[in-house]
């Protein structure tokens, strides 16, 4: 998803367009990976000196609820990234720099065999480690 389509989706759901929301989406559009609310807050304080964690969290959770952002837990803290446009895939996430790479392989066929008596409604598969740049450093 890009910022323009995210803002259109936000408006179509009856939510207001604001400069802060646009700047939040711009931040995630340029980042290649999951970022914490704290990282976003530090970035936003350059332009909005009085911005609060409450404002950041409220917008992040709105964007997740509207399927504009996706979230994961890294080191006990929720991190966010802009929703991918591509077909079904999963992610490798660098634990050092947060860089994210798409993984096209999905283990669900094997999992479905093991859970034949269950109704699987959704899934998320993430691999954590160090990217080639961080591994070399």
UniProtKB/TrEMBL annotation:
<dbReference type="InterPro" id="IPR036388">
    <property type="entry name" value="WH-like_DNA-bd_sf"/>
</dbReference>
<dbReference type="Pfam" id="PF01475">
    <property type="entry name" value="FUR"/>
</dbReference>
<feature type="binding site">
    <location>
        <position position="88"/>
    </location>
    <ligand>
        <name>Fe cation</name>
    </ligand>
</feature>
<keyword id="KW-0678">Repressor</keyword>
<dbReference type="InterPro" id="IPR002481">
    <property type="entry name" value="FUR"/>
</dbReference>
<comment type="similarity">
    <text>Belongs to the Fur family.</text>
</comment>
<dbReference type="InterPro" id="IPR043135">
    <property type="entry name" value="Fur_C"/>
</dbReference>
<dbReference type="GO" id="GO:0003700">
    <property type="term" value="F:DNA-binding transcription factor activity"/>
</dbReference>
<keyword id="KW-0408">Iron</keyword>
<keyword id="KW-0804">Transcription</keyword>
<feature type="binding site">
    <location>
        <position position="94"/>
    </location>
    <ligand>
        <name>Zn(2+)</name>
    </ligand>
</feature>
<dbReference type="GO" id="GO:0045892">
    <property type="term" value="P:negative regulation of DNA-templated transcription"/>
</dbReference>
<keyword id="KW-0862">Zinc</keyword>
<dbReference type="GO" id="GO:1900376">
    <property type="term" value="P:regulation of secondary metabolite biosynthetic process"/>
</dbReference>
<feature type="binding site">
    <location>
        <position position="131"/>
    </location>
    <ligand>
        <name>Zn(2+)</name>
    </ligand>
</feature>
<keyword id="KW-0238">DNA-binding</keyword>
<keyword id="KW-0479">Metal-binding</keyword>
<feature type="binding site">
    <location>
        <position position="123"/>
    </location>
    <ligand>
        <name>Fe cation</name>
    </ligand>
</feature>
<feature type="binding site">
    <location>
        <position position="134"/>
    </location>
    <ligand>
        <name>Zn(2+)</name>
    </ligand>
</feature>
<dbReference type="GO" id="GO:0000976">
    <property type="term" value="F:transcription cis-regulatory region binding"/>
</dbReference>
<feature type="binding site">
    <location>
        <position position="97"/>
    </location>
    <ligand>
        <name>Zn(2+)</name>
    </ligand>
</feature>
<keyword id="KW-0963">Cytoplasm</keyword>
<dbReference type="GO" id="GO:0008270">
    <property type="term" value="F:zinc ion binding"/>
</dbReference>
<keyword id="KW-0805">Transcription regulation</keyword>
<dbReference type="InterPro" id="IPR036390">
    <property type="entry name" value="WH_DNA-bd_sf"/>
</dbReference>
<dbReference type="GO" id="GO:0005737">
    <property type="term" value="C:cytoplasm"/>
</dbReference>
<protein>
    <submittedName>
        <fullName>Fur family transcriptional regulator</fullName>
    </submittedName>
</protein>
